[in-house]
Each structure stands twice: as structure tokens, then as C-alpha cells.
Write a structure and sequence with these properties.
alpha/beta
Length: 396
């Protein structure tokens, strides 16, 4: 592998710094919810048109730009940025505060979008210097796990040899970059259990089938899955966050609804635990003479970085911020990200770029917090990481 040290790349990154920051602030002011990113993708397409980068629509609110190297065919690398915001008020007092009530780029996707557009501008200028293809995926609906699969199911990843993505991270100091091989983020499944019983007067419980009691028993018994069906060395969560049942204090409930989530770090464990949730729930319900319906929403697979891409990203990061500022080992997160769907199609890595300014507590808030903000110097590192990763991979 050859690590790029071309000073002209660094110069272009510095030159485009203010433009990337301005784009981030624009997107921050006009956030849109998942699958409703119509104005966001419109602006992205406008920027791609200015750069003379051809693109195609992916679903209603996604876009895929393509830069083909002038030195002929070669490998294909996909760079991804998610573009959706959260249904959350923006409680900051800044000039770039959200102008869309109840919506907030509180996870950094505005920065992801701006950084990839900044990288696109530089990569387009470099097209005469490489062979192969760079795909620019501006992906909708990451927050609800519905966007990456539109790229995958639409066949937009079929000819991709490697994928690269990054996430800004307010828990990591600005000037540091994280690249860790293996599982880094958990899968996310959202299950719903409908428990069916039979109504009766509470004074005659034997005449009915208590769906509420069955649901309560199911909630408790589901915890045995983690305790008795999964290795203690494997990190798994089975959580029930909603239990609704009954209509009146003196009526045996004829229906109950449970909603919960399963989080795992491997495809095999995920499959086993989901089967166990349905099996345990069904058998517990039967023991109470009730029945169930089981539904599951597949929000994201476990995010598993491949070793070679992780090593590549770490080495490139060392060029950008110095070897001492590259983090190669970090605790796993039970939070999910649907970049995992891209990684299920091609090897790749999902890096993290620090945005916590140790001298500015406004940048310390966690993701999904109403006061979330970033140290914008992290955008410079994110832009450069995209550029160098793509060029390094295609030239290797």
C-alpha cells in the first residue's frame, strides 16, 4: 500500500475549508426527517451539477454521484454520507440554528454531507490521476434504518469493491480519528408482540384469558434469553420498552402489545436471539392460554469492519493527524448504524472523526441531544479522510 503525502491534497483541503463549513451550516439550518429529505437532496444535486459530477436518484431522497478516473477501468470504491436529521428541537443559540421547528441535525449528518461534498470537489479535480471509479452515496433515512437498503436493493452496490464511511463523534477530541477492525456497532431489530386473550369481568377471571398477565410474564421471561441462551462473553441486549394492555380496571384484558429491541454484534447471535424471542414469547403465552403475533423490523445489521480497510484507514489517518492521534481500539457501541448494510455487500470500514473541542463545552453534548454541536475543524479531517482513502485504495 502506498500512503499519499501529496502536499497539493492538503492545500486543496485547506483551501476548501470555509466552503465545507458553510455547507454544513446551511444543512444544519434546514434539517429534514428521514425519507423526507427533499430539499436536502435537491441542494446536494445542485452541488454535484456545479462540479460536473453525474448522479442518479436512489429512492425519492437519495443520490449517487459517480467520478470515473481518466486512466481507465479499475476498482470501485463507494464513499457514504447519511443526510437525514432528527425530530428534535434545536436548543442552541447560534447563527446556524435550525430554522425548521422540531427538527435538528443532532447527530452530525449535516457535517457528513458537507465533508463528502468537499471531498467530491477535490476528487473530481484528481480524476485524471487515477484509474477506477469513485461512487458518492448521499444516503437518506439512516436514523430509521431504511436508507442503506435502498442503495443495496437497487443494485447500486453490486459492482463496488470496497466501501468507506465515517461518523463525526462528539465523544472523541477533535484532532483524533478512530479506525477499529471487527464489530464496532450492534445490530438493531425492533420487535412487536401482540398478545391475544379473552375479555371477562375481573370478578370472574376464570371466564377470560388475561393478555396483560401473559404479556407481563413474557416481559420477564425474555430476560432469560440473555442470561441462559447466550454466552456471557457475547454482548447482547433484549429490552422491552413498551407494554400496553387493558381498557378498564375491572376487565380482564383481551389484548396486550409489547415493543422492544434486540442488539447483537454478530449475524449468528442475532439470528439465534430473534428466534428465541419469538419462541419464548409464544410458549409463555400458551402457558397462559393466550396466543401471540410476532413482528420484527430489521433496522440494521451488526456493523463489522474488515481488517485490511481498517488498517488502511488508520494509516491514512496517521498522515492527517499523526500516528499518536489515531485510535485503533475502542469499546463497542450498542448503538446501530445502517452503514452495516453496505458492509454486508463489500468489505470496508466505518471510521469516526473527533469533534469535541476540549476548550469549548458546547461541543461536548452527546449525539441526539438538543444542544448538540461540533468543533468544525473535524470537518477538515473528515474531508481529507474521504479524499485520501479513495485515492489510496484506487492507486494501491
Amino acid at each position: 500500500m502506498t500512503t499519499l503525502t501529496d502536499s497539493s491534497i492538503k492545500a486543496q483541503i485547506v483551501e476548501g475549508r470555509e466552503e465545507v463549513i458553510a455547507l454544513r451550516r446551511y444543512f444544519h439550518q434546514y434539517p429534514e426527517a428521514s425519507l423526507k429529505e427533499y430539499e436536502t437532496v435537491k441542494r446536494i444535486k445542485q452541488e454535484l451539477e456545479v462540479l460536473d459530477i453525474p448522479f442518479e436518484a436512489v429512492g425519492e431522497t437519495g443520490a449517487l454521484g459517480t467520478i470515473r478516473g481518466k486512466k481507465g477501468p479499475g476498482k470501485t470504491v463507494l464513499l457514504r454520507a447519511d443526510i437525514d436529521a432528527l425530530e428534535l428541537e434545536d436548543a442552541k443559540d447560534t447563527p446556524y440554528k435550525s430554522k425548521n421547528p422540531g427538527l435538528h441535525h443532532a447527530c452530525g449528518h449535516d457535517g457528513h454531507t458537507a465533508a463528502l461534498l468537499g471531498a467530491a470537489k477535490i476528487l473530481k479535480k484528481q480524476e485524471g490521476q487515477f484509474s477506477g471509479t469513485i461512487k458518492l452515496a448521499f444516503q437518506q433515512a439512516e436514523e430509521i434504518g431504511a436508507g442503506a437498503r435502498q442503495f443495496v436493493k437497487g443494485g447500486f452496490v453490486e459492482d463496488v469493491d470496497q466501501v468507506f464511511g465515517l461518523h463525526l463523534d462528539s465523544s472523541v477530541p477533535v484532532g483524533k480519528i478512530v479506525s477499529v477492525p471487527g464489530a464496532t456497532n450492534a445490530s438493531c431489530d425492533i420487535f412487536k408482540l401482540k398478545v391475544h386473550g379473552k375479555s371477562a369481568h375481573a370478578a370472574q377471571p376464570d371466564k377470560g384469558v388475561d393478555a396483560l398477565l401473559a404479556a407481563a410474564a413474557i416481559t420477564v421471561e425474555l430476560q432469560s434469553i440473555v442470561g441462559r441462551e447466550v454466552s456471557p462473553l457475547d454482548n447482547v441486549v433484549v429490552a422491552v420498552g413498551v407494554l400496553n394492555a387493558g381498557t378498564r380496571y375491572n376487565i380482564v384484558a383481551n389484548q396486550a402489545v409489547l415493543e422492544g429491541t434486540v442488539r447483537t454484534f454478530s449475524h449468528e447471535t442475532r439470528e439465534h436471539v430473534l428466534e428465541a424471542v419469538e419462541r419464548v414469547a409464544r410458549r409463555v403465552a400458551e402457558s397462559h392460554r393466550a396466543s401471540i403475533e410476532f413482528e420484527n423490523y430489521d433496522a440494521a445489521a451488526p456493523l463489522i469492519n474488515s481488517k485490511e480497510p481498517s488498517d488502511r484507514a488508520a494509516q491514512i489517518a496517521s498522515v492527517i493527524v499523526g500516528e499518536e492521534n489515531v485510535i485503533r481500539s475502542q469499546p463497542k457501541s450498542l448503538g446501530a448504524d445502517d452503514f452495516a448494510d453496505f458492509l454486508a455487500e463489500a468489505p470496508g470500514v466505518y471510521a469516526r472523526v473527533g469533534t469535541r473541542d476540549l476548550d469549548n463545552s458546547d461541543t461536548w453534548y452527546g449525539h441526539h441531544h438538543e444542544k448538540f454541536d461540533i468543533a468544525e475543524e473535524g470537518l477538515v479531517h473528515a474531508t481529507e479522510l474521504h479524499v485520501r482513502y479513495a485515492l489510496d485504495y484506487l492507486k494501491d
